[in-house]
C-alpha cells in the first residue's frame, strides 16, 4: 500500500508566536482562550478554545482570480470535485537562490497530450516540487526569496497546458521582491477596484497571466516527503472554510486556505486499470468535445 | 434503457442490473449506495416522496431488488423504548464501489456489443460514461484495494475491448491524425469515392469549395488541376471558375466523379502530391465538423 501524503504546510509556532514565511504586513496569530460557559441558570462551565486570525493568502492556499478582481465568481459554488483531481508532479529540485524556474527545465518532464487531449475541466493539476519546502519555517528569508517561474514557463502553462490549477512548494509563482504593503484598505470601493484592474502587473506577471486564464494557484505546499519516483496521483485540495451569502451581496474571497492531501497512483492491477480508465477518458472526451 | 444494451457476454450482469431498468429501482439503489443499512420504510418513504409514486408500488420494486439479490437483509434494527417487531435492515449485496465497478463493466460491455445503439441514443450517454469513468478512477485511488480481484480483472478485460472501439469513434468524429503523404491521401480519396454514405455528405457546392481551398493551399497551376480532373482543353482555363464551369457543363461536378478522376489521374509528383494531401485533409476537417452521430452509426456499420 502506498503512503498518503499531507502536502499542507504546517503553521509553525515559536512559543505562542506564529512564525511562518510571510510578508511583513500580513497578520497571523493563534490564541488560547478560556471560556466561562453559562449553563442552566447559574452553573458555569469552564472550557478552552482557540482564536485564529490570519490572512487567507498565508500558509497553504489557492489564489483565486478575485485577488486582482478579474472576476467575482463565488468559489463556494464550485463543485467539490473540482478540488479532487489527478495531478502531475514535476520534480525540479535545485538551488533557487538565483535563477528562476525555466521552461527548458520543465518541458521534457511534461507530456503535453496528458493535458491537451482532455477538456479543460478534466485536466490534471500540475504541481512543481522545487525543494523550497525544506526552508519552510527553518529559513524564512531563503523561502521568501524564491525567484519564481520564468515568463516562458508561465506562458506555456497558461496557453498550452491550461490546467485548472497549478501548485508549488514555494511562496509564489512570481519573484517575491519586498512583499511589504504600504497601506492597508479595509473599505474597498469601486474606485479601488478600478485602479486595481488598470494597473500593470509586471512584478506579478505569473499571477496575472494564470489568474486571467482562470488557472488557480496553489501556493506553499509542503512536498518534502514526496519521493522522486512519485509523479502522478490524486490531489485533494479542499478549502478549509465555506461561506455563503444570506443577502444579495456576493461573497468576495480572494484565496482559499486548504488542507492538501496527495494519494500516489495505485500499483499493480488496480494501477493498470486506472491507466486504462485514463485512456478511455481521453477517447470519450474526444467524442464529446 | 438498460435492457437495450444487453450483450451475450453480459447475461449474468444483465440479470443483476435488470434491477436498474426502472427509475424507482434506480432511486432505491441510489439511496443505498452510501453503504448504510436502511429499513424498508425509510427507503420506500424516500423514493415515494421523491417521485410521487405510491408507497405500495415502491414496495413492489423493493421486493424485486431483493429477489434479484441486489440488496440483502443485514439484520434487525434496534428500536429503543418501543414495543413490537423490530423492522429489518437492508444493505446493498456488495459494497458500493464493487457495485459501481460492476455497473460500469456492464455498461461498457453493452457499448462493446451494441455500440451503435448507445451512440444513437445521444451524446448524453457518452457524457454519463465519461463521468462514470472519473468517479471509478477516483474511487480506485482511494479504496481500490477493497475491490475484489475478479471485479478488477473483469473491468480490465472490458476496458481492453471497448477502448479500441471508442478510439475508432473518436477518430471518426475528431481525427487527431491527418494524412501526410500522397499514397495515403489517394487511398483516402479512393475510399471516400466508393462510400455512398460519406459522399452524400458532400454537396456539389461543398466539393467546389474544397477543391478551391486545396488549390490555394497547394499553389498548383490551374492547368494542372484541370489535367487531374480530366479536362482535355486546358487552354480555356484561366481561373478556378472556368474550371468549374467546364465541370458543370460536362456533368463531371459530382463528388463521386471528381474523386474518381483525381485518384485515377494523380501520379504523386510534387505538385500533385501537395494538392491531393491538401484536399484529403480538408475533407477530414469537413467531416469532423459536419458529421452527425446518425451518420457516424452508419459509417461504423460500413467499416
How is this structure best described in words?
- The complex is a heterodimer of chains A (289) and B (303).
- Chain A has helices at 103-107, 113-116, 140-144, 151-161, 190-198, 205-212, 268-288; strands at residues 5-6, 13-14, 17-18, 28-39, 43-54, 61-63, 84-91, 125-129, 165-168, 216-219, 232-239, 255-264.
- Chain A has 289 residues and is of the alpha+beta class.
- Chain A has 2 domains: 11-52, no CATH class; 56-288, Putative cyclase (Glucose Oxidase, domain 1).
- Chain A has a 7-stranded mixed beta barrel.
- In chain A, helix 4 (151-161) runs parallel beside helix 6.
- Chain A starts with a strand and ends with a helix.
- The model of chain A has no long low-confidence stretch (mean pLDDT 88).
- Chain B has 303 residues and is mainly alpha-helical.
- Chain B folds into 3 domains: 2-93, Arc Repressor Mutant, subunit A (Orthogonal Bundle); 97-173; 182-302, no CATH class.
- In chain B, 67% of the residues lie in helices and 4% in strands.
- Chain B is built from 16 helices and 3 strands.
- Chain B has a 3-stranded antiparallel beta sheet with strand order 1-3-2.
- In chain B, helix 9 (182-193) packs across helix 15 (270-290).
- The radius of gyration of chain B is 29 Å and the shape is elongated.
- Residues 1-10 and 111-116 of chain B have low confidence and may be disordered.
- The chains are: A alpha+beta (289), B mainly alpha (303).
- Chains A and B meet through helix 7 of A and helix 7 and helix 8 of B.
The succession of helices and strands of chain A, N to C, reads EEEEEEEHHEHHEHHEEEH
Order of adjacent strands in the largest pleated sheet of chain B:
1-3-2
Provide the domain count of chain B: 3
- The average pLDDT value of chain B, as a whole number, equals 76
